[in-house]
Amino acid sequence: MPAKGQKRKQQIIETAKSMFIENGFQSTHIGQVCEKLNIARGTVYQYFGNKREILYAVLEQVEEKIDDILDADDMKDFYKTNPSQKAVLKFVSDRVQSTVSVIIAEPIVIKLIFKDIVGIDEEVISRVNKFIEHIAKILIRDVEEVKKKGVYKKTVNADITAVMLVGGVLFVVYEFLKKEQDVLNKEVIESMVANYLTGILK
Asked: Would you say residue 197 has pLDDT above 90?
């Protein structure tokens, strides 16, 4: 897609996201998004068939970012350099921190997971559940790989560890959003990652 088209698509996503949170999913219509951006309906339909597709695009973007952060080939390349234990810990910590940062950077994802957006239906909820499963699957794979390298305790259960990370982050973010506190604060992110790694590092 040309850069101009990609920029317009992202504008539609960002505008719709804000409206979903502010007005509710059911009460937000394509026409309102068009009005806000001062564009024709046909422009939106060049990229999305309906408002659900806009919402799903948000989830897909988060999935792609986490896929990229936890890329298995990146880990293989890193270990080929015969890194020190200190370098390994930093590598692992950076991956987890980047993953957490991506999740908390999208308040709409947190609100969707906690069914905190008015008007979401079973189809949307089903897609959100698939999103959670996908993220957990990527994390499980990553935990297993790091465990093989002897960085995590042998007793670490990858499935439980992944669910605890995702669940813990989501709950912390949800609570911060309710209190209107800045969850993107660097200290908050570092604290979440430190608490997570403390329990599983060898």
From this structure: no
